Structure formats: C-alpha cells, structure tokens
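Example 3.2
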Amino acid sequence: MENLNNLLIDNQLNVIAELTRGDKKNHKIIFTAEGRIEQFELVIRIVKHAPDLNFFEIEAFRTRVENLDAFSITHHDHSFSLSPADLLIYHHEEYRKVSLEIAFGKTIPEEMKQIAKSTAFILLDHALGEYDFAIKIGCVNFLEIPKEATAVPLNEFVTVFDQLWQDKLRHTGIFPLSDKEDRWNVFEISDQNDPDNKRLVQRNETADVDSKENLSLVYELEDTINPALRFNKQGIHCQNTFYQGVRPMLWHVQDKQSAIALAQRLADQYKTLSVKIECEFDPGCSQYLSWVEK
C-alpha cells in the first residue's frame, strides 16, 4: 500500500489508497478523494480501469460502516471519545440537498469543542459514506445547545436520510421509463368578461432565431440525440433553453467518452449548424439545478 500511495503522490493525483482486511479473498483496496468532489471523477476512472486482483476487491470511495452502534472514535490519549449516538441530528431540505444542524448529546469540555466538531465530520463520513456525504449533504452547522424539536441520533439518522433523499426529494436513481419529454410551462390568460374564455401562451423573448430552417434542424438534431442516449439507458435529457440564437441542451450521461462520441457523430450530420459539445463531472446535478431552482 505504501508503494501504491507513493505512485499516486508521484503522479500528483490527490487520491489515496486504503486497505481494509476481510476474509482470505475479501480484502479491499479503497481509493478515496477524502471528500474532495473535484477528484471524484478521477477516483471513478481509476477503479473502472483497475485490473482484477486475486484476493482483493477494488472500490471507489469509503463506504458506510455496517454497525454504527458499535463504532466510536477515541483520541490517542483516551481523554475524549465520540460515537454516532452522541451526535443529535436536525435536518431540513435546502437546494435539493439535505442540510444538517448538529448538537452534541454529551457534555463537551470547552477545550475539546473544536476537536469534537472535527470528529463529528469523520463520524458523518463513516455513517453516510464518502460519496453520499460529499454529494447529498448541503450545509452542516453546529448548535451550542439542542433544540426543543426532536433530534435523531446519527446511528438512526442514516435510514431517515435515505428515505428523505428518495421519497421526499425524489432522487430515486431509477431511469425514467417514459419516452415523453417534459413540456414547458405556459401562461394562462383569461378574459375578464368571460372567465371561461382562456388562452394558453408560450413566449420566448430572447430566442433571436436567425432562420426557421436552422431552428427546424436544431429540433431535429435534438430529437435524434434523445433516443440515441436513452438507448441502453446511456443518458437522460434534462433541460433546454433558448437565448440569443443559442439553444443549450443538457443531458446527464452514464459514460463521458461514449456520450461525447455519440453526440459528435450525430452532430456531424448537420453541417450547417454550429455545434459545441462539452461534458463535465456533475454528480450533484448543479447545472440542472442552477436553472430549475431559479
């Protein structure tokens, strides 16, 4: 492991390899970015291209501790310890993530409060797993005293968190089965003298389309890429906008290189259009949410 980490350091990858021991054939080598989201894509790529090893499994990111009730962190001089049950969690939704307020369920000496906060982050990382903690958790604030509202200890919060993420925030992780695309919302205009006389109006003030023919080609290209990416669940169409003659189209895709190659191959069929294709690592869907949350 020392040689492996030296290799990672020599190549300035900012990724760490860790070893967890199991049964004879169940040792694990875990590559971690220690919560740095900007390195997550690299971690995924390293694990994806890692060779098969006898007696070792290769995993991306630190996973959740299986038995939180038996887990605790004790500092080297044994003067202070903290367990998941000592963290009282208050949670709320914020920008499609879960934000936390944390109070300590035991008395923390003043000189140990900063250490306790740092330890709490380590416990959160172990309880939720490195990926979920970095991607799904928003702000984390500490309270001096517990609130009157009911808190959930961290060892029980994991189940609450998973249910909140999937059922309330609707991050199901399930590929949509419908082929129908979402439609834009429109204005409804009613006649003051006749409430039953209603009109639906959709208007784009900033489209600035240079020609009807080019617009038709843009729509045609979009309708070509959509089913191609949906095939084998390669990508999900998330949004379109239209501003000053440019139509950004956003998909969240499974594999960066294959998606770029597919989109480029289809775009090459429309020689009269100026098409720019970009792809970035965005596990938190920030590109989509920056638009939809406005």
